[in-house]
Amino acid sequence: MKRKAAIIFSCLALVIVGAFVWSAFNVPRQKEMRSFPKAERIDLGNVLVVFYSLTGSTKEIAGRIGEMTGGALFEIETEKSYPAAPIVYISVWRELKNGNLPVLKKIPRNYSSFDVIFVGSPVWFSSLPAPIRAFLSQSDFQGKTVIPFSTQGGGFGDFFASFEKEVQNAKITKGMDFSTSSGRDVSALDQKIAVWLNELKNDLLHKP
Fold first, then answer.
1. The overall pTM is greater than 0.85
2. Domains and CATH numbers, the chain
């Protein structure tokens, strides 16, 4: 009995070690971008959509916002590559715990030509991921309207509260969270984005 238990334990240990070794030499898998129907333009002025995306979920939402608003896209990229799961969870947890911010390849330096700036990001451990914290720490939005959005597998936690604390020189307006599970239906996801953008349009038109 003890021998059998030892064999099972050894096999589990090998599987766990193998998973960690594999993830150390691989990057997170990117999801395939889905096709959306042709969108009717929702005019929010001159729009910039800034986003960070590790696996592609946030990138998909950002791309759709760009299509619906005619906005330009800017992807935040880190100098280092994050490993695949499960090591990625340890890596990002350490960053958040220790306040270590990754080096970014580049960020926009001038927002003067934009009326509205969307900033999108995944939620890591119920909060802002380190790449977005790094971006916000280096960004002066010059008093522009900034609209956050998040993607996550569970709840958004303190994502939006932390975003408001860390954003600099911006007028924050209604953000939106997108659950990766509820976003499996492309039509429903598309409708959610459209309704949100139209609400923003109405709010911005009536803003004093």
1. no
2. 2-205 (3.40.50.360)
